[in-house]
């Protein structure tokens, strides 16, 4: 699920929730809701999150099969 992939990616990049929220210009509670799965970011914010963590949007959305079909190794982001 998106929220689990988001959390794992943030932790791998050694970002706190607060640092992530600040970098995105959103409230901490808003970001926490994304990781809890009770809210979803807008398309624009999803792109910002992917850019912040230097991963494809498709990776955050768990479209691993699609990425592999393009010859992108999903393992490099995990």
Return the CATH class.
Mainly Alpha
**Category by helix and strand content:** mainly alpha
What is the overall pLDDT average?
93
Low-confidence stretches: none
Taking all Cα atoms into account, the compactness measure Rg is 12 Å
CATH topology: 434 Repressor (Amino-terminal Domain)
The 3D shape can be described as globular
- Say how many strands there are: 0
Tally of separate helices: 6
Largest sheet: none
Helix fraction? 55-70%
Report the order of strands and helices. Answer: HHHHHH
CATH architecture: Orthogonal Bundle
CATH superfamily: lambda repressor-like DNA-binding domains
General description of the model:
The protein starts with a helix and ends in a 9-residue tail after the last helix. The chain is built from six helices and no strands. The chain is 63% helix and 0% strand. Helix 2 (17-24) crosses helix 3. It has one domain (2-77): 434 Repressor (Amino-terminal Domain) (Orthogonal Bundle), CATH 1.10.260. The chain has helices at 2-12, 17-24, 28-36, 43-53, 57-60, 64-69. The chain is globular. It is mainly α.
Write the SSE topology.
Layout: H1 2-12, H2 17-24, H3 28-36, H4 43-53, H5 57-60, H6 64-69
Helix pairs in contact: 2-3
Keywords:
434 Repressor (Amino-terminal Domain), globular, mainly alpha, 78 residues
Write a compact overview of the structure shown.
This protein is an all-alpha fold and 78 residues long.
